[in-house]
Specification:
With 401 residues, this protein is an alpha+beta fold. It has helices at 16-27, 43-47, 74-79, 82-91, 111-125, 181-188, 210-215, 246-252, 271-282, 287-294, 297-302, 318-329, 385-398, and strands spanning 9-12, 32-35, 56-57, 65-66, 96-98, 103-106, 128-130, 133-140, 146-152, 155-161, 164-166, 193-199, 203-204, 220-226, 231-238, 242-244, 261-264, 331-333, 337-338, 346-351, 369-371, 379-380. It has 2 domains: 9-198 and 346-398, 3-Layer(bba) Sandwich (FAD/NAD(P)-binding domain); 202-339, Elongation Factor Tu (Ef-tu), domain 3 (Beta Barrel).
Amino acid sequence: MNNNQDFDAIIIGGGACGLMCAVQAGFLGKKVLIIEKNEKVGAKILISGGGRCNYANLYATDANFISGNPHFCKSAFSQFSVEDTVSFFETYGIIGEEKTLGQLFPESNNAKDIVRIFEDLCREMGQEIICGAEVKYVAKDDNGTFSVSYKQDLKTKTAVSAKVVITTGGLPIPKMGATDFGLKVARQFGLNIIQTAPALVPLTITGKDAEWYTRLSGNSIYCRVSNHRISFEENILFTHWGLSGPAILQISSYWRPGEHIRIDLLPDSNINDLVQAARQTNGRKTFLSLLSETFTRKFADALAKFLPVEKNLASLTKEDIAAAEKLIHFFDVKPAGDKGYDRAEVMRGGVDTAELSSRTLEAKKVPGLYFGGECVDVTGWLGGYNFQWAWSSGYIMAQHL
């Protein structure tokens, strides 16, 4: 048993949000304890971006996030902005290299450098980190003191503090220890939960069209993917189970089971214009040849299922071209489902933002209890946005411990 109250706060979860909270608290002279289920902190940081860690996005704003309250994250971003994130990491030797669409990666391309900053700062400031420890329950007594019971090395221990910060993440990647612990604690204290679901996740195709997608596995095409909520222009990737790639991951956060999505396979051109221009040069060229110049040959061949690709351009009728326009610019897909939390980047939904102060992330009903990062109903786009929410939410909680 550890029944002292030497900690200003106990942080449950040593991921991006929890680590930033601990470091920022340390800057303010506050002593915290991090309890982490994995054997090391920063597990999800280490695998993000293929081990390179897309730690920020230069263009992140509240418009890049899904939440029951779309304005909720504005306060956090005003207190700790993208510029603050870049400055923080530059101060400790991480120079960002901009990739596609504002994505920032360390010049070293090594996520370990990000985690090392937090480990070093926590060590220097005397913040305590306990790894390989699974929290069993959180309780609050009549005096307003929280007790956090955790199991480590087959021993049950208890730490106490006036404040507890929940930064345990969401449900994606269970093999890395992801659980619904944060949601359970929220429910325990009477907080509402917005229905959760995998987000930034590949979509599956079943039924009569499944084989067509499987044959195209490995083909990547730049497209515009949209539904009635939003549109994204990036690559899609055909897989043996359906569709993946950046554009599909993005739209998946806005997709609901039973809905269709529309894909413009040629967003920067019009197939009718291409046919008419090619006719002027060589009307005897086959439609397949033109499509092979526009797409990969494998994809052009696959379009033979739907289009008269064997015809030469001069022989194409208005109906043929109209069919090509509909297929290529309005390719309709009704996914069967998604690949679930095993393949999801993040979780959609979580602790209802109406239950939290947007300025501090403290639970309105439970003084001293805070929720930050992925377990809150704030879900970012693909490309460093969710890290920005983690850094910003960790920062603002630290200011109020």
